[in-house]
Amino acid sequence: MRWMVPSDGELLPHGYTNDAVVHGDLVVKTYHGPDAVVRQDREVLAIVSLTGRLPVAPFIESTPGTVVLGRVPGRPGQDLIELGHGDAVMFALGRTLRELQAIEPSFYGEYGGDGVLVHGDFGPNNVLLAEDDDSVALLADWEWSSIGHPTTDLAWAEFIVRMHHPRHVECLSALFDGYGNRPSWNERKRAMTDRAGALETWLRSWKGDDAEEWDRRSRLISRWEELP
Fold first, then answer.
1. Cα within 13 Å of Cα(183), Cβ side
2. Per-position pLDDT tens, the chain of length 228
């Protein structure tokens, strides 16, 4: 039986590739761009497999091009950083990443025992903190999830802060404290560069102008230096 979703709704901000629209207690996500079917299937598999193990949205329904999820109340991580609560956001992210990487990603058919679960767009842009404490209420957007290196998600959370919250980079220390480890700067920088390059390549098959933006960001990463 198909879930009946109202025709009106509120478009969530900060969407980059896809559209997510709130309809009361539901969120309807519509996928766009190359390999949209693959990314949708990947997200559904991750959410269903991680329910009860990580703070993912309640899965309601998947139809061609669209997924319906339950709405999770919370405070957007990026907004909290700008309000001066970056330490709480990034510490919670670090703790959540440690929990994420402790889960064996055997629900992916290609898993052979090596590597860890990788979210693929991990950072304050995809997290909600609870209304009444600083725990993570939601880790959203699993379409890029895969199996990979432990530094991949940690470095991408750092990239999001350096790129979009340059006045608050000091909160990155809390990320490493929550995670319990601070990989070398060369390792983190290489992980950021690799991910930015992959996004540039992906976008060249879809939006040429956006691909140029990711080329610019790759060059920007090359000029970044380790924080004190």
1. 18
2. 344 444 566 766 655 678 899 989 999 999 998 899 999 999 999 999 999 999 999 999 999 999 999 999 999 999 999 999 999 999 999 999 999 999 999 999 999 999 999 999 999 999 999 999 999 999 999 999 999 999 999 999 999 999 999 999 999 999 999 999 999 999 999 999 999 999 999 988 887 777 888 999 999 999 999 998
In one-letter notation, the amino acid at residue 54 is: L
Q: What is the 3-state secondary structure (H, E, C) of 95-140?
A: HHHHHHHCCCCCCCCCCCCCCEEECCCCCHHHEEECCCCCCEEEEC
Place of tokens 């991580």: 77
Note whether 61 and 21 are within 8 A (CB): no
SS3 48: helix
For residues 86 and 170, the answer to whether their CB atoms sit within 8 Å is yes
Q: Which two tokens stand for residue 179?
A: 């995670």
Q: Domain for residue 1, yes or no?
A: no
Q: How many domains in the chain? A: 2
Looking up residue 190, the CATH number of its domain turns out to be 3.90.1200.10
The residue assigned the tokens 């610019």 is 216
Domain that holds residue 149: 75-223
Torsion 87-46-118-105 (CA) sign: positive
